[in-house]
Amino acid sequence: MNISDRIQALRKAKGISQEELADQIGVSRQAVSKWESEQSIPDIDKIIILSEYFEVTTDYLLKGIEEVKSDNKNAQSNAYIFVIVATVFNFIGLIFGCATWYEDQTPMAIVIGLIIMAVGCLAYGVGSINSTPQTRKPANQHFWLINIWLLSFMPVFFLYNMMFSGTSAPYPILMASVTSVVIPGFIYLIICIAVILKVKSKKMK
């Protein structure tokens, strides 16, 4: 693996495009493309900026010499693992809360579902802190792109149903009026889309 391969690998691990990398280090996208295709080599000042941005040593970029890591760093893991764990917990919490409420129709079903989701989010938060820096930011973006749909579902429909129909259902009441489905559904979509757009706008920076 040469310097062009290492730059490309680090960029992909960070989950950014050539244009995004170019914006971060103050060069053109064509310059990054030439680096990765072995048509040119970054100047030394760009090597330094790249090493700081990717949180690696200049020796690694130039020669492929890995930094000697402490036991603590070796114990770090990929943040995407915790995205998967949290998503599974959040999905289980949503299904459990809705299914249990359907059977018992008690608010406690929703509380237990939300507790399961809270455990999932906590596992992701703690795991993300102890994961490798290169995977932390892109994993966080993927976490919100997926989990906002799971996390906001029950609270939106629960609050709307409590306010306008007097029931604690955590999902749309299909047998009720059309507005009891359309209005909270629209609110739910707006919240999810707003969070997704916010996450994507941060990714572009």
Features:
0% strand; 205 residues; Cro/C1-type_HTH; single chain; mainly alpha
Give a quick summary of the entry:
This protein has 205 residues and is mostly helical. It has 11 helices and no strands. The relative contact order is 0.10.
Tell me what you see in this structure.
- It is a single chain.
- The protein is an all-alpha fold and 205 residues long.
- It contains 11 helices and no strands.
- The chain has helices at residues 3-14, 18-25, 29-36, 44-54, 58-63, 71-74, 79-104, 107-129, 133-151, 153-164, 179-204.
Tally of helical segments: 11
What is the SS-derived class?
mainly alpha
Instruction: Please indicate the percent range of residues in DSSP E strands (runs of 2 or more).
Output: under 5%
Shape: elongated
Number of strands: 0
Backbone CA Rg: 23 Å
Mean pLDDT level: 88
As a percent range, the share of helical residues equals over 70%
Uncertain regions: pLDDT < 50 for 5+ in a row?
69-75
Separation of termini?
29 Å
List SSEs in N-to-C order.
Answer: HHHHHHHHHHH
* Major β-sheet profile: none
Multimeric state of these chains? Answer: single chain
Write the layout of secondary structure elements.
Elements: H1 3-14, H2 18-25, H3 29-36, H4 44-54, H5 58-63, H6 71-74, H7 79-104, H8 107-129, H9 133-151, H10 153-164, H11 179-204
